[in-house]
Amino acid sequence: MVTIRRHPVPTDSYDPKRPLNDLLVAQLDHFKHIAKNLPSEVRSTVPAEPSHEDREGVDRFIAAVTGVHVSRKKATPRLVAKPPRRKQSMTLDIAAAAEETGTKDKPAQSNSQGKPKSKATRGDAGSSKQ
Predict the structure, then answer these.
(1) Residue 128 CA: distances (Å) to CA of 42, 120, 123, 124, 125
(2) Looking at the whole model, is its pTM more than 0.85?
């Protein structure tokens, strides 16, 4: 197997003091909102809200709030039985009502082809006597 050689990573490529990008600023604002809604006993374990310039403080704050949420126990969901389905007796009621009104006496006229029938026949349309 061929060995793949990599160039060494320069030490100056990582800058821990670089400014926060927009994604991290939005994430910090979101985590500040989450930290405000935590119960007071849990909120005391989270570090103070850092400013946008303190990148290491932001990292610690996000890690602490994430750790709190991961470690919190979630309530176990309760299993609830579905209510029994009611029998649908509507079809019998409709059929009984139809028999009472007498709609079954006359069969409905239906056109099987779906087109209106023309009164004119083929021979009448072509010839006209004057």
Answers:
(1) 98, 12, 10, 7, 7
(2) no
